[in-house]
Amino acid sequence: MTLLPVFAGLVVVVVALRGLLTHPRLPLWVRASVFWTVPLAALTWAYIMVADEPVLFPDTAPCPREPYREGVIGGGEVAGVSTAFPPRAYCRWEDGTVYELTPGAEFLFWVLFALTVVPLGAGLWHALRDPKSQVDQARSAGYPSA
Known about the structure:
Elements: H1 3-21, H2 28-49, E1 78-83, E2 88-93, E3 98-100, H3 103-129, H4 131-140
Antiparallel strand pairs: 1-2, 2-3
């Protein structure tokens, strides 16, 4: 049941990308922006997801296992928490105190996400408003007509 929404999402993204690449009024840098913002957004997302992991350097773990002095950040046990979407990594102490680990990276992710979604939305809008241009583009590329 999970494959159907994934497949539908992929079809929408492919149609949006084709519409973006054939949009006559968008400058080349806008069309090309999707190809550099997607990998950067993916790298930023991965950075946020591993921010609470103490595996590489346990001595300098972002969420210290031994509490600081009482009242500095939080008290009691601490746990690192990551959420996949929206991407967020933070430390949560027993007393409810939360310490954000990657506020700058979260902002960067949302900027890159917007820089990806807006041009793809314009491409989808173009593909849905003028589907004939998509067919003409496919025919001029040498695809056989049905």
